Amino acid sequence: MNIRRAKAEDAEAISALINTFADRFTLDPDGIGAERFLDSITPLGIESIVTALNFYYLIAEVDGHLAGAVALRDGRHLFHLFVAPEYQRSGMAHPITHKSPAPKLQPVWVSTQGGGGGTGR
User: Fold this and answer.
1) What are residue 57's DSSP bridge partners?
2) How does strand 55-62 pair with strand 77-83?
3) Count of helices and strands (H, E) across the chain
4) What is the pLDDT tens value at each position of the chain, 121 positions in all?
5) Other Cβ atoms closer than 10 A to 21
6) Measured between alpha carbons, how far is 56 from 15 in angstroms, rounded to an integer?
7) Are 11 and 46 in contact (CB under 8 A)?
8) Residue 17 phi/psi, 5° resolution?
9) Top-level class of domain 2-98
């Protein structure tokens, strides 16, 4: 596996990878209401993210084929993390995310009470 910084030329392959999953991120099967998101994952949209100064975009390749991608915005916000279906559950996400410059954060547990119909316990 080769992990490297994404380049503008990778935008088409990254877009294709993300679009493999796009229907899982929209409420309407035709994408109605998600136009902004869908525009952001076109090759042109991905190219603008890859080349933006406030983004750090890495890709993982296996035998020259795109296997995964991760993007950080502003050095602290996980913006994209996608792994090709054939590499899911193989541990692919771990090396991609750990190669990023984000600070290593400790897990945080969040508990809510009241509101939202839960028991609050």
Assistant:
1) 71
2) unpaired
3) 4, 4
4) 899 999 999 999 999 999 998 888 888 888 889 899 899 999 999 999 999 999 999 999 999 999 999 999 998 888 999 999 999 888 877 777 777 655 554 454 544 444 444 444 4
5) 13
6) 16
7) yes
8) -60, -50
9) alpha beta
